[in-house]
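Repro case for the chain-ordering regression, as requested:
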Amino acid sequence: MVKEKSNQVLIDGSKIITEACVRSGADAFVGYPITPSNLFYRYSQKRFPLFMAGPDEISVLQWMTGMSAAGKFPVTATSFPGLALMVESLNMAYMMEMPMLLVLVQRLGPSTGSATTGAQGDLKFLNGIISGGYPMPVFCPSNYEEAWVLTNKAIHTAVELRTPVILLTSKEMVMTQRSFDLSDLPEIKKVERPTFSPKGTYKAYLADDSLVPPFIPLGNDDHQVRINSSTHDNEGLIRKGTPESLDNTRRLKKKMEKALPDMAFYSLDEEPFATDLIVTYGISTDAARDALKQLREADYKVSLLTINTLLPVPGEVLRILDRYEHITFVEENLSGLLREVIYGQMPRAGVRSVNKIGSMIDPSEIVAEVFKNHQE
Amino acid sequence: MEPSFDFLIKDEKVFSGALSCRGCGWSLLVRHLASILGEETVYVLPASCFSIISGPYPLNDLKGTIVHTVFAAAPATATGVRAALDRRGREDVPVVVLAGDGSTFDIGLQSMSGAASRGENILYIVNNNGAYMNTGIQTSTATPYGAVTTTNPGAKGFKKTWPKDLMGIIAAHNLPYAATCSLAHLDDFRAKIEKALSIKGFRLLMIDGPCPPGHKTDPADSIQIARLAVETKLFPLMEIEHFDYKINYRPEKFVPVEECMKMQGRFKNVFKPGNEEVLKDIQAHTDNHWKRLEALAAMSEN
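-- result from build under test --
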């Protein structure tokens, strides 16, 4: 798939991401039908060594946690209604520190909304999805190359940090077919899941300086393994409010913060001396690129920041934002969810949004907003 | 039960020009259902083909009050509606869940079982077309042994587990009324709706739903296939009142299951060389199921 030059095909993002999962070493897929993530379900049946069809989304996440605890790397794909049912189990997998990948295909909400209409409406939900505000990595591709590479990064991150990771996509990314040259895709590295050496004492949640505890699968011949969704000590025993158990809980956040610089993915198309910045991600990126081109053709100095690591928000991204006077966020949602994640309810002067629901944003709408922002 | 033979729709409650596929069982089912239930009925629809058939303007086709709810919990939504209607003194308004097999057999089973055990005064209708058709024909636990779906695909693939016995599960809830219906036996179907309406409590009707895109059939054959499902005993017509079983129709002569299966492209792999035993297994399973039903019916008569 990646060797041959000029390998032009008509393809959807579901196939690219499914293939990237398998080549990255993900070896199990659990699915439940929901639009617009159905193509993953279909493709995965043929590509994954282990494939299981769940009876509902709660079961899906539970099966995945069991698989992950027993040494497999599981993947699923869903959209908001399915994710909503997975939330308790996702918190469980997070607390147990079980690596897995969840491909979230955004569609227009709230609720059932419009199953076949794309959207970028789930970011704020993801920002608080772990009770207590603990961060979980959310990666978002804006084109097929990024879908390929970020899927790989997401799987490596999940294993290295022992955490569920979300790959955030939208209907247009995974269902719409586009012409694409597969030879543009780089080779990707298979993940290896490090396991604890059989010698010595094993404590399921005793972490070294990496802050990530060593993994050993259930059903090994050398050690008992205790994994736990309740507040637990280093051995995985339930402890209510002891310093050790609370430290263990705090560690869940610290391990993410420690790793954040290594998983800060974004691209900055920088115009020297520009004071205007367009910020976008995912399916709105193509429109933002078009707008950037139009603005530059009109001799307008503007830069474009496309963010791939949406959560936790990388420090480097915040530092880039600080350098610009006028910032226009471009997102296909009602009020600008990424802008709200970064600036809360009170954005500083010069920060504005282009937002839309029900259809994709048009480049002309971005151009108009950037002009308006600059003039104010 | 006395057959009514009166199966012509006199008072149409479904608009023409619906969004359903040609030969769709759901649409015919609802035409008959709605003509009996009237416009006051509250329909509770979880995500399903029919939520789409009856939903989008301007093709929304059902005259009635409709609550479009989530996939996992239509009986729970209906429970809330029922409780409030009753408190308002509107016990006369029927609350009817129209669900598919995905939400009934799988994701909503717990919700349905809860409402059934509480004896909620709800009529639950399940259109069993044997897969998640609306999302692209994925296997459900209602999918028959031997069927090809997009999650049991391939040149040789097919589902290799037996479907859940929903009527057995529902019987275990000790309900006042549960029955199976076929679109090829409309008189029986309409009589069962009327009977269900005359009873208070949780009632369930399971309809064998022809689905040309999912079953890979000619839309013109829908009713013929539904008829053959009854004749081959793949889909027995029965009623269960509390723990008493009654078989409503006994085919006069033996018709092998393959007569019904060979008309459906989803079973094509079962007919490939090397799978003769599979077909025999399906026949044996069908015969055994019928034998058990006869035993239960005989026990109920005594």
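Ordering looks correct now. Chain A touches chain B through 19 residues (CB under 8 Å).
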